[in-house]
Amino acid sequence: MTTNQTDDGTMKKEVPAMVAALTLDQVIGHGAFSTVHKGMYNSTMPVAIKRQKVTQASTYINRELALLQETNHPRLVQHIGSCTCNNLTPPEVWIVSEYMAGGDVAQILALNQETHVTWVQCIQIALDAAQALAYLHDQGIIHRDIKSANLLLDDKMRCKLGDFGMARRTETGSHQPKRRMSLCGTDAYMAPEMYISEEYDERADVFSLGVVLMELGCRQQASHTTGFMQRWPQTQFRVNLDAFRAQKLSTCPPSLALLAESCVAFEPDERPVAREVVEWLEDLAATYVPLAESSATKVAHRIPTTKPTQPPTIQGTLERKSRRGFIRWWAPTNVIVVDTTLSAFRSTKALDATKHGHADFTLDLRACTLHHPSQRRFVLVDAAAAAKHEFQASSAEECRKWVAALCTIMAAPATAATAPADNDVSTWLARLELPQYAASFQAKGFHSLAYLRETGLVDEDFFMLGIDDAQHQMILARAASNLQNAD
C-alpha cells in the first residue's frame, strides 16, 4: 500500500488493485448498488470493504470517491482508500474504510429494549451525528441518506456517519441556474419536499435526522413495513406527531423529543439548521440528569455528563398570545422562572414587584406540558386549569434556550398535578357524536369546558388536536361558539 500526505497532514492511502491485499469476511451490510464486507488489510488492519460493480451508477461512485477524498472530520467514518478490481466480471470498485466494531444505530433499535443503551448514550449518539451533519453542510455537501443504518458505532458507543453514495455538493453561484435534485434516499427518512418533487436543500438532511431522533425516543426503527412512522400522500407525507408522542418511551428526555419534532417540521424554513441542532444537543448533554438506573440495566461504556444540582432560573421578555373571541394579538410579557414556577408580568413595574407576588398569572411548570410548534414559539398547557399559554421569542436561538431550560425544570423529579375529576369535555363530545376526539382533547389539556367557553376553538387548536376533518372542525367550532354565547 502506498501513501500520500494531504495538506492537513493526514495520510490518504491508495489500496493497490490486488485482491490478495484484502481478505473478505462476512457481509455486514447492503446498499442499493453495493455490498459491504468486514475484511482485513494485509492481515493486520480490520476494515470495511464496500463492493460496487463499475457498471452500476458510475456517476455516484465517482462522486462518492471525490467527496471521501475532500472530507475529514472525527465524526465521519475514516476513508482508507479504494481500488478497481478489473480481474472480476464485471469489474468492481472496492471502497475501503475503517471498521466500526459497534455495528449501527439500526441494530440498537432492532433490540427494542431501553436497557441496552442509556439515554445519556442516545444523546451523545445524536450529538455525534449532528456534528457530522453540520460539518458536511458547512462544506456545502448534502448527505441525502441520513438514517439509523448509516450511523455507525465504535466499541465505545460513539457514532460516525458513513455511506456517501447519495451525497452531493449543493449548487453555488448566482450565475448558475438552480436545478431540482433527484429523488433519492430511504423512504421512511425522506423529507416531504423530496416526496412531492420540490426543490430541496440541507434542511432535508435535518428532517431525516429528526426521524432518527424519533426512533431513539421510541426505540423503534421507522419502516413502511411495520407501519412505525409511516407517512401518507393524503397528508403530504407529514409526520404524525400525535403517534410519535403516544409511542415514545415515558423516560425519553422531553428536550430530545421536542428537538425531534422541530426537525421534522413540514415547512423546511421551520426546521433548525444543523448547527442549531448541535447547540441544542450540547445543552441537553450538559444538563440532562439520568433517572436512577439499577446495576442490571447499566451498560459497559457509559458516557459522562454534567449533572446540575438545581433547576435553572431564566428571565426575559417574550410575546404572549392574547385573544378574545376571534380577535388575537401578541402582547409583550416579562417572564421569570424561579425553581418550578413561571410568573408573567405585563409591565416592568409589575416585574419589579415580583417579591410581593404581583404577577398577572403564575404556572406550576411541573403540572404543565410543553409543545414547540415552530422555531420561535412554544406553548405551555396547564391541564389543571384547562388553559394554554402561547409564547413567542425574538429569535429561534432565544426560543431554544427557553425550551431547553423549561424541559430541564419540567423533567426534574416531582409529583405532577393530576387532572381534575370533572371531565365534561368527553360528555360534550359524545353529544356531538364525536367521541373519537376525547383522548386527543384530554392529552392536550382540555379537561373541562371552561377553556372552550372563554376562547372557543380556532384553526390553531384543531391543528394542535390533530383534527383535520373539515366537517368535524365546523361542528366543533359552532358548538364551542354556542358555549361562549350561552355565557
Q: Could you give the order of strands across the largest sheet? A: 15-14-13-12-18-17-16
Number of helices: 15
Estimate the mean pLDDT confidence.
Answer: 77
CATH superfamily of the largest domain: Transferase(Phosphotransferase) domain 1
Please give the CATH class of the largest domain: Mainly Alpha
The major β-sheet equals: 7 strands, antiparallel
What is the CATH third-level topology name of the largest domain? Transferase(Phosphotransferase), domain 1
**From the coordinates shown, what is the CATH architecture of the largest domain?**
Orthogonal Bundle
Shape: elongated
Estimated helix fraction: 25-40%
Q: What class do helices, strands and sheet pairing give?
A: alpha+beta
Q: How many distinct domains?
A: 4
Quote the distance from N terminus to C terminus. Answer: 85 Å
The poorly predicted ranges are: 1-18, 173-180, 292-309, 414-423
Query: What is the CA-atom radius of gyration, in angstroms?
Result: 26 Å
Name the beta content range.
Answer: 15-25%
Number of strands: 18
Domain SAM: 420-486
Protein name: TKL/LISK/LISK-DD1 protein kinase, variant 1
Family: Belongs to the protein kinase superfamily.
InterPro entries: Actin_reg-Ser/Thr_kinase (IPR050940), Kinase-like_dom_sf (IPR011009), PH-like_dom_sf (IPR011993), PH_domain (IPR001849), Prot_kinase_dom (IPR000719), Protein_kinase_ATP_BS (IPR017441), SAM (IPR001660), SAM/pointed_sf (IPR013761)
